[in-house]
Amino acid sequence: MFTAYVVVAILMSTVLVVSAGAKSLRTQHITGQMATLGVPEGMLLFLAAAQVSGAVGLVIGVWWGPLGIAAAVGLTLYFAGAVASHLRVGDHRGTPPAIVLTLIALALIALRAATL
């Protein structure tokens, strides 16, 4: 279980850092998607910081389990909010990835809790 947590945490952290980078750079794809969701452009850096914090928490969680669990809980809430935002505006194209990321965050909670 611990090895599974490490692998999934590293993959998820990579996805989070790439996504945070796109938000920080305000790429056209991200700004368009956020505009569709009704997210003000000023929130992009906050969202990017939340993603980077989650990624760092998952990685440190390899050595300190409670932080890994806390980071995964935070990411579950973050992505559940993303699911709700996509559903609210009827963005059925953006909903499935947010659901998958929510489920991965939930799996990270279970994997790290199983190895404490």
From TrEMBL:
The chain crosses the membrane at residues 6-22, 43-63, 69-87, 99-115. It comes from the Bacteria. Its main location: membrane. InterPro entries: DoxX. Keywords: Membrane, Transmembrane, Transmembrane helix. It is found in: Membrane. It holds the Pfam family DoxX_2. It is a multi-pass membrane protein. The keyword Disulfide bond does not apply. The lineage of its organism: Bacteria, Bacillati, Actinomycetota, Actinomycetes, Kitasatosporales. This is DoxX family protein.
